[in-house]
Amino acid sequence: MASPRTRNEHKQYCLRSLGHPVIQINVADEQLEDRIDESLEHMRLYHWEGIERIYYKHLITEEDVTNGFIDLPEHIYGVKRLIPIRQGSSGTNLFDVQYQLKLTDIYELNNANLITYTSTMSYMALLDQMLNGYPSFEFSKLSGRLFFEMGTTKLTVGHYIIIEAYIAIDESGKTNGRFWGDNWFLSFTEALIKKQWGSNLKKYSGLQLPGGVTIDGTSLYNEAIQELKDLKDELMNKSAPLAMVIG
């Protein structure tokens, strides 16, 4: 069949890789779903294709200022920086230096020195970064709350703040489910299912079935543990994952 594009196709592919339907896979469907969720979470945390960067807009409210934090959506896995949108940056403040530069120069570019104008704007951006910088914050994915260090962060009710963040990849959205067919993801899910299979059979280790066949769940379990270790090593050696951002 073609590369899996849905959750069910992903599950069936892994089962066939383990021998189904020729071999009975002694894993309940609920256990299969749990292992897929576990694999999916690991991919989102560590795989370079498991997350994507976004810019999330938030309007500061009285409650945000009082609490000192913002509740973020559950699908946000990490926050890189905060970008405040200051009133003067929009060009509506007549006393803003940038507005005055634009007023005197931008409409007369035919006569103005563009190099000088660009250098001046870059210098102003550098001064703004040195004097104001970016707001300091702390973020925990478990709580979903973005805390501000109020000593260094000025929040103004009614102003917007842009949050550069990382979100979990959508299971069925703009990717069209293509990540379900990722080779590493398939192998990791298969190894987790094999581990579950071996764990289920370990209690029957040494039991002899009709025909002289002996159940050896321990070997199956240990084999899966080694496969998982190899896959994790492969992943960590190929990328600098989101874990570096979210700790």
Describe this structure in words.
- The protein has 247 residues and is α+β, with helices and mostly antiparallel strands.
- The chain folds into two domains: 7-49 and 172-246, no CATH class; 52-168, no CATH class.
- Helix content is 43%, strand content 15%.
- It has a three-stranded antiparallel sheet with strand order 1-6-3. It has a three-stranded antiparallel sheet with strand order 2-5-4.
- α1 (7-17) crosses α6 (183-201), α2 packs across α6 (183-201) and α6 runs antiparallel to α7.
- The radius of gyration is 27 Å and the shape is elongated.
- The chain starts with 6 loop residues before the first helix and ends with a helix.
Category from helices, strands and their pairing: alpha+beta
Main sheet characteristics = 3 strands, antiparallel
Strand content: 15-25%
Tell me how many strands there are.
6
The percentage helix is 40-55%
The total domain count is 2
Shape: elongated
Low-confidence stretches: 88-92, 240-247
Spatial order of strands in the largest sheet: 1-6-3
What string, H for helix and E for strand, traces the elements in order?
HHEHEEHHEEEHHH
Q: What's the end-to-end separation, in Å?
A: 39 Å
On the 0 to 100 scale, the average pLDDT is 79
Q: Give me the Rg, rounded.
A: 27 Å
| H/I helix tally | 8
